[in-house]
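Technical annex, item 7. During the second reporting period the consortium partners agreed on a shared format for inverse folding records so that results from different sites could be compared directly. Each record opens with the tokenized structure and is followed by the designed sequence. A conforming record, contributed by the partner at site C, is shown below for reference.
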């Protein structure tokens, strides 16, 4: 997640929080949903990499 992504997400959240009731926020919510999905995918990738690192360390410890 880059600095640009973080700023974009922050602006998206600010827009949603500042929107009046009934305001058309469909596009903004769609952007936020997309950002969340991407973050979840990145999180899963990191979790997988951590598991591989743990497995590698365990192999080294067994030597």
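Designed sequence (site C submission):
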């Amino acid at each position: 997640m880059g600095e640009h992504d973080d700023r974009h997400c922050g602006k998206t959240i600010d827009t949603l929080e500042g929107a009046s009731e009934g305001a058309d926020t469909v596009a903004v919510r769609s952007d936020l949903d997309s950002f969340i999905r991407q973050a979840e995918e990145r999180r899963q990738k990191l979790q997988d990499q951590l598991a591989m690192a743990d497995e590698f360390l365990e192999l080294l410890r067994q030597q």
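The mean pLDDT is 85. Residues 26-61 form the longest helix (36 residues). All partners now use this format for quarterly exchanges.
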